[in-house]
Structure formats: structure tokens, C-alpha cells
Amino acid sequence: MTNSAWLQLFPNLPQSWKDSLVVKTVNGTELSVQSIVRIDESFLVVRGRVAGTTEQGQVYFIPIEKLETICIQKPPKEDEMQKSLNEIFGPVGAPVTLVEKTSDSPRATTMMRLSPEAHERLKSLAAASKQPNPPNS
What is the pTM of this model? Predict the structure, then answer.
């Protein structure tokens, strides 16, 4: 999943899903989430615990690029899940907005449907990233 897809998903998750969320990072760490504290374009801040432990209330700063999967431990009914996903991402087969992502690897183009707010935010981030960096002193 791309960073922009995570940024579109997390703030729009139904509360009932957030109450039983487990986040898995690319290195295999699983975090049982008590609450999502903050969602930023480069990181997610959650209060929770490492899955399988009993220590509650620790705060984790998770780079968005290190997220691998999320799991809803108390899965919703199929129709409720489809309705929520359609509200977040639009119905399957709906027109998509093309988002181009560049990194150290060759250019990749990801197609996904974005909300108008997310689309504008990504455009402004892309424009800001194209600004020349000031010389180092």
C-alpha cells in the first residue's frame, strides 16, 4: 500500500475498527492499538502495546513507509465493511486519480481513488518537494 493510501485510510476508519486494530510493520513488529494519537504525512503516532505483551499505554511513532498491514481483530460484517471501504476509497471500478511516486527505485505509477482533500494535499506536497533546496552552509 502506498503512503497516500495509508493517509487516506487511517483518519477515515470507523471507530469500531479502530477499537480492535493491530498494526504490523515491515520488520514484523505487531502493535495492538489502543488509540490513534496523530496521523502525519510521514508518521503515525499510536498508543498501545506490542502484541503478546501486557504493558499498556506506550506511545509509538511509526513511519508511514514502514507500515505493512493492519488487522481488525473484531472484523465487521461483510456489508458493513464494503460500505465503509466504498466511503473511504470510492466504489470498486470508480474513476481513479493518477498519483506518481518517485523514489530511489525507478518511477512507479500508482492508481488509486483519492478524496478531493487528499488529492489537493498530495499536489501541494509534490509542489513543495520540487522546490530547490538551499545550499548547505
Answer: 0.60
